[in-house]
Amino acid sequence: MNRYTGIIEHYRERLPIAAGTRIIAMCEGNTPLIRLENIPALTGRQVEIYVKYEGLNPTGSFKDRGMTMAVTQAYAEGSRAIICASTGNTSASAAAYAARAGMTAFVLIPAGKIALGKLAQAMMQGAVVIQIKGNFDDGMRLVKEVAQAAPVTIVNSINPFRLQGQKTAAFEIIDQLGRAPDYHCLPVGNAGNISAYWIGYSEYAGKYAGSCNFCDGTCKFQQPAVVSTRPKLLGYQASGAAPFLRGAMVDDPETIATAIRIGRPQSWELAWNASRESGGWFDEFTDADILAAQKLLAEKEGIFCEPASAIAIAGALRDIANGKIAEQSVVVCTLTGHGLKDPDTAIKQSTKPLLQIDAELSQVKKAILDNIS
Ligand code: F0G
After folding, report:
1. What span, in angstroms and rounded, lies between the C-alpha atoms of 57 and 121?
2. What angle do CA 274, 203, 282 make, to 5 degrees?
């Protein structure tokens, strides 16, 4: 049987997990790389834009790639409790993998500042949810301190197994495209993901990609390819939480994209290195830019991502328009989390009226005729 079970089995030879280890997995990874069909035409330039839809992971974000690794390793080392600070997605993922492993998850979240869906996930999946009167950066500091004194394993991205798992997204993109993209756009918060992509692209560069676990390598999606290039990594931040643009840590970060409401990124050096080595850059976007991109993607392509993820689209479009992204390029944007994570923000910014009518044919007909375009 060739059932896909997750990134650890699929990329086993490239991941530091010992043989015979109990794998805590739930088919994470193997997410679609969707080519945008309508938005590129709006740019007036010749570019191919793809989105890596990480919102389709088991808990609705890219965190699952790292969490399967971190929890598998923590369990193997005999740990029975994990802990993280989170803006929401890490806590949802930690709760899920801990539940599956039979471990306890402690999650520290900024009170009142995480999206509703993420809170529901952590609560439903049995995590001990600790709301703090502070932000993510305060939570991170406390987690590091408490892990010195209590028998808990940190599963934030300072745990190196997290980045190892997350690097597999770069492998998948190359396997799916048959080459590396020219530019890779992604949101930057705690800066683990941009660092993980760089590890992944670097490991695959110069090597053969595309060997298929499911067939003899002859299926049309898995043509072996020699990968000789790495993309420029473009890291985008919310203006109110943009330490990479300021060149220094930021106190009191603020943005509607609560997932990236972070002022003190833990992977500061790694991310700078990834950006510089790749020849990429950082840029910043207002909350209005972020929401506009989220809406554009939903309305023009039918793809619903959370606000933080949409910054990748905002960035790609700006850099295509200003020519920093060259014509004829292949661009990949990571959509880090599903739109359903944050229904409040989506509903608040929706401009379409919610119609309400009597349950009568004539009124349904009228509603159709009034609104047909
Ligand atoms: N997009 C989403 C949806 C996220 O949840 C995060 C981070 C990021 C982007 C940024 O990724 O931190 O690797 O630079 N969320 C973390 C959390 C901090 O706690 O869920 P990063």
Report:
1. 14
2. 15
Starting at the edge strand that comes first in sequence, how are the strands of the sheet with 330-335 ordered?
A: 33-35, 48-53, 330-335, 183-187, 232-238, 281-285
- Give the position, in ligand 1's atom list, of the atom nearest the Cα of 191: 14
Instruction: Give me the DSSP letters along 73-85.
Output: HHHHTT--EEEEE
Q: How far apart are CA 155 and CA 133, in angstroms?
A: 21
- Angle at CA of residue 195, ends 16 and 209, nearest 5°: 60
Q: What is the pLDDT of residue 208?
A: 55
Q: What is the Cα–Cα distance from 94 to 66, expressed in whole angstroms? A: 10
- Quote the tokens at residue 84: 């993280």
Distance from the alpha carbon of residue 190 to the mean position of ligand 1, in angstroms: 6
Residue 144: what are its φ and ψ, rounded to 5°?
-65, -40
Q: Is the CB of 337 under 6 A from ligand 1?
A: yes
Q: How far apart are CA 79 and CA 98, in angstroms?
A: 11
What pTM, to 2 d.p., does this model score?
0.94
Which residue(s) pair with 334 in the sheet?
52
CB atoms within 10 A of CB 40: 18
Q: Which single residue is written with the structure tokens 């705690």?
A: 190
End-to-end CA distance of the chain: 49
| Residue 50 confidence class, pLDDT cut points 50, 70, 90 | very high
What mean pLDDT do residues 302-321 have? 98
- Cα(217) to ligand 1 centroid in Å equals 34
CB 169 within 8 A of CB 200: yes
- Contact present, 26 and 67 (Cβ < 8 Å): no
CA distances from 51 to 11, 33, 131, 282, 297 (A): 21, 5, 33, 19, 10
User: Would you say 91 and 67 are in contact if contact means Cβ atoms under 8 Å apart?
Assistant: no
